[in-house]
Amino acid sequence: MGRVEALTVVRPRRGWRPLLRRFVHVPLLAPAVGLSIAVFWTCMAVLVVMSVYPFLAAGTPRFTWAAWQRFLVDPYYWGVVGTTLRLAVVVTGLSLLIGYPAAYAISKIQRPGWALAAYVVLFAPILVSVVVRTYGWLLLLSNTGVVNYVLRALGLIREPIPLIFNTTGIVIAMVHILLPFAVFPILSVVGQLERDLKDAAMDLGATRWQTFRRVTLPLTLPGIIAGAQIVFTLTVSAFVTPFLMGGGKVQILSGLIYRDMEAVNLGFAAVVALVLLTLAAAILAASNLLARRTYSRAEVARA
Amino acid sequence: MRARRDPVRLTLFVLLGLVAVFMLAPIIFVMVFAFSSASYLIFPPPGYSLRWFAKLFQQEALFRAALNSLVIAATATLVSLIVGTLASLALVRYQFFGREVLRALFLAPLIVPRIAFGVAMLIYAVVLGRFGGLDSLILAHLMVTLPFAISILSAALVSADRSLEEAAADLGASPLVTFWKVTLPQIRTGLAVSGFFAFIISWDQVETSLFLVKTENMTLPVAMFYYLQRQQDPVIAALSACLIGAAVAAAVAMAVTISPRDLQRILSAGGR
Amino acid sequence: MDVDVELRDVSKHFGDVVAVDRISLQIRRGEFFSLLGPSGCGKTTTLRMIGGLEFPTAGQIVLRGAVVTDLPAYRRSTNMVFQHLALFPHLTVAENIAFGLRLRRLPPAVVARKVEQALQLVDLPGYGGREIHQLSGGQKQRVAIARALVNEPAVLLLDEPLGSLDLKLRLQMQSELKALQHQVGTTFVYVTHDQSEALVMSDRIAVMRAGRVEQVGTSQEIYARPQTRFVAAFIGEANFLEGRVVGAGPAGVLVRVGGLQFWAAGDGAPPEGSAVTVSIRPEHIKLGPAAGETQNRWEGRIRDVAFMGSVVRARVTIPGDVTVTAELPSDAMEGLMPGATILAGWSAHHSVVLAD
Prior knowledge:
The complex is a heterotrimer.
Chain A: E1 3-4, H1 16-22, H2 25-52, H3 66-73, H4 75-108, H5 112-127, H6 130-141, H7 146-153, H8 167-190, H9 195-203, H10 208-237, H11 240-246, H12 253-262, H13 266-302
Helix pairs in contact in A: 2-13, 3-13, 4-8, 4-10, 5-8, 6-8, 6-11, 8-10, 8-11, 9-10, 10-13, 12-13
Chain B: H1 2-5, H2 7-34, H3 51-56, H4 60-93, H5 99-107, H6 114-128, H7 134-159, H8 162-170, H9 175-186, H10 188-203, H11 207-210, H12 220-230, H13 235-257, H14 260-268
Chain C: E1 3-14, E2 17-28, E3 32-36, H1 43-51, E4 58-63, E5 66-67, E6 78-81, H2 93-103, H3 108-121, H4 137-149, E7 155-159, H5 167-184, E8 187-192, H6 195-201, E9 204-209, E10 212-217, H7 219-224, H8 229-234, E11 239-249, E12 252-257, E13 260-264, E14 275-280, E15 286-287, E16 296-307, E17 311-318, E18 322-329, E19 341-346, E20 351-354
Parallel strand pairs in C: 3-8, 3-9, 6-7, 7-8
Antiparallel strand pairs in C: 1-2, 1-4, 4-5, 9-10, 11-12, 11-14, 12-13, 14-20, 15-19, 16-17, 16-19, 17-18
Helix pairs in contact in C: 2-3, 2-4, 3-4
């Protein structure tokens, strides 16, 4: 509105109406703030306390770094962290590898009916419980399941190949569950791509591959990063699917938490939970940093 | 029609077809197995029967769990819509000190892995002596659904036309009347979307509930999770078939209320 | 004369930004009053404070004798026509117009009658059942005006309501709005950045700049006797001559500009020796024989001539190396040859001494 100037010193007017106006937001925020502090933030505090002061265990509780020490010193647990991250990398990579062309194809569908069908097929599975879908994969991939039956019927294999209770099964089911979260962010960016830019690139003599590599890919990078971020963090913290598909053969952080909770080892479970939380937050922070850089570059490319 | 014969395009569409098969296969085969006559996993099924549905309807525990889940999801949804709308109104419509900090505070639960939060929630519930109650489950789910509702409703309020609210006030409508007659109709879609997702998220919540349940406050997805660990007879397939039917009905209901554009926005925002 | 709106030393700060800086105004009953100024001058903020959509940081707002400074919009007898109209998209035309009436819990029959009358007033009879998105830009405009006027406000506030219309429709709506105001007799406070719009429609105009009121007056006063250089430049066009006061007399003040010395009109003559700016409208500068009747006239040389349709503009350099622009009817163009010598001059009362 105008200029910056601090010549006039103005005393705020008195009266209840101006006062009321300054604090209308307080009652609106109160329930959310109350819930957030009383439940979520207290929970976080409780978790931290539990990790160093296992107060629900038998005997008199006392302050101890024992649980942290156990986790940080034992290479086994670092191995679990490694497995968790490796799994996330593979699932993220595959989701993008499949999700990118799929998103691209959907954006190229011309008939609205087919486009809607594509949306429904990709989206509807989200409405079906993760437990049900994981169960579906158990049915498909078990030794007596559909995939091994088909492969045998085709004469490709004689003995069933083990597809569940190992990493393969986890990866297949995880990609299935997280694919929509990779496709939709990419789709929203691909949908905004300007036809003109590609035409211009082609006009300038770029081949299709060059156009893709130099125009389409850089411009859709923000979508790819967003998708990767979601898939990665969701894989790192997933429990149901890796647990059921892994059948106890593949140990990741969430499974570790479950095991310690079953053993009523609350202190150690809290430590693992905090490690997982830190990991998720760190990944998010790092990818946000990356995203901000690419965004600004994509903006330049757009301008 | 030259575009149709373009090999790159063709490859893309073939791939999209394969993705569709990939996405639908587990769901379809769960339905197939629900009608299998065998009591173990084998394909092709030796025969077809309805006996697993019959057995499903004798599982009283599963029904109680479904009822629990329904109550929890409905309550969590309702509360997140109300509390979320109020908070979003404050965040979007008013300027005050610490607004961005507060927004971050509200959205923080989205970052926390569900299973980690589940651990914390159990400890807290035990401390408060509420372990085994529906209330602790509702509160736990609320922490997951509320940030979600706040982010969707804030976006809806940002795109709602502020000057319409001013016009209403100018014409004599008190803030309450303005909200009811002008603001609410404008954020209807946002409410439908966040309500729908809040319900789905709560309904399908395993990790957050896992440690909080006992027999009396068992939820359906956790019950199914435990059932699958114990045995793999097609009772779960029959139950899944029922749930898939419900999901299809829900999808149809949602397609009527939410446009693909909105959907895209929500999923891009990381709707889990 | 009754005063409908009075602003007493009203300021509005947004953080460190001063949007409105201690302005005082009196708006009379039944007048068409315009707040005119460039964007960011605080005119919309002033209007919104009168309507109760913003609240002053300091000062008082009086509406028909009652202090309303902190009263919210829904308790004030003002109604506004918004810049982007703000018609409720989920309501029909009639429901939009009835919005304020229903809130006052008037009986349905009365509401229906008033809505119909309002539609008649804005020349849209029978449009009540339409949806907002079915209307044209001009029709939406009328509905917005009807929705505000139907409540019989003490003051109708209009925030650049014609801004989004194309030129032809805007001119038409200007005259309609003026006629409408005449018909209903309500006090109109009209915000605009378009000086010609303000001149055409207003009884009085307040010219605003950077949060302050530069000058208040009728269209003629503002145009003919601008008090500041900003007003003279913002309303129409003017030649500005920088000079010094060298004397005073009953006809005004004697000013020296470069090598020239001439009489100029000035309210509250500044003291001798002070530096001043003199403003002369281009159409007040006479050329050729017409200049013979003016008090201040010199032989000048035509530098260039621009044909502009109904008028021509000629730049003339007069002694003392002063160049002025003159505006003449097109039919006077013959005989205006660049390089030619010509008599140029203006009447003393057309050269106005400005405050800064």
